[in-house]
Fold:
Amino acid sequence: MLARFLIWALFLLVVWRALRSLIGGIMKGAAPPEVPRGGPPAKGELMVRDPVCGTFVLPSRSVSLRDRNGTHHFCSDRCRQAFQPQ
Ligand SMILES: [Zn+2]
Structure:
């Protein structure tokens, strides 16, 4: 009687461990792939609207122009020149 119980306990332990490693493997496989760093812009940087064409640009990657109204950001030189022909 006791021996049978011990065999069962051992069996359940083996099954439990197998299940746990299986679940762990599934969880690992389901984890989202890591996002490569360096490419996308830094988080938290607010995008600003190009007043000429309406495109949203990152200030750090835009063509900027300062005038008495403040700093304007453009997607390209062309938009900046359209905004303020020189
Ligand atoms: Zn533009």
Observations:
- The chain has two helices and four strands.
